[in-house]
Amino acid sequence: MAAPNPSVPARTESAADDNRPRSGVIHDNVRHTANFTVVGNHLAQHPELSLLAIGLGLYVQSVRGGTSVDIKSLAARFKEGTVRISAALRELEAHGYLRRERKRAPDGRIVTRTVSCNDPRARRRRSDTECPATGPQRTPHPRRTAGRKALPAVPQPGCKVPGLLQAAVDLLADLRRHDSRLLLSATDTAHLAPGVAAWLERDVLPSRVRHALTANLPDEPLHRPAALLAHRLADKLPPPAPFRAMATVTAPPAPVRHPVRNCDGCDRGFRAPETETHCRDCRETEA
């Protein structure tokens, strides 16, 4: 009787493997009944978020309300460090999974609250079709914004260098980190960017531009933050930097190197002009 072929799977194993994928991951799942978090695939499989941002987003959604999720607390919990964690938080904030709201505490201090949103897509759909004061609205979104007042004009740079405009866009996008009310749309950012570039073109440091735009903001809600920033860019525009002519640098003359000659007194070699016939020691002896 021939020996059985060991490469042929058993009948029960073959039937169990019929529904399994031929390649890739195979899930061996059990049903969770306690201590679990439901997370949408729109976050777990987000096409634009980094792996660190996705993992950090999953962690924030899994912790209890009131847990500290600031950069310092997260850096103490994980080993990625403050720089990478800060970048991941900015990614989550840019895609709507986190919001940072500044509130005034009863004692007068300004505190920052971090709000985790488990599905920013639903929040955007809700904000487009629902008004908190009057309930659902049937008016399409573009019609509600059709009568929007135009933004004030902003200064224009003398030369629209792509790198200068990109630096201006980055500065405007970063303003929401300093005040959550300064979250600008792409359209508002494109309108304001030349004004910021005009400041940078005048040798104003980005930190000074940021301070001019964010200092002494009113405490009440900003209904049109882009209009306020446009007004400040035009009203506080500094004068052009003074022209600094480059001074002509004259190189010092090269030192004179006399030829080597022999002393008429001791026949020792020394460097001296042709008028000198004796070395220094012989001249001192004769003197």
What would you note in describing this structure?
By secondary structure, the protein is mostly helical. Among the domains are: 38-136, Arc Repressor Mutant, subunit A (Orthogonal Bundle), CATH 1.10.10; 152-235, no CATH class. Helix content is 40%, strand content 8%. It contains 13 helices and 6 strands. It has helices at 11-17, 41-44, 51-62, 71-77, 82-94, 120-129, 141-144, 162-173, 175-178, 186-201, 206-214, 225-235, 280-286; strands spanning 98-104, 110-116, 130-131, 135-136, 260-262, 269-271. The strands form 3 sheets. A two-stranded antiparallel sheet has the order 1-2. The protein has a two-stranded antiparallel ribbon with strand order 3-4. Helix 3 packs across helix 5 and helix 8 packs across helix 10 (186-201). It is elongated and about 110 Å long. The model is unreliable at 131-146 and 245-249 (pLDDT under 50).
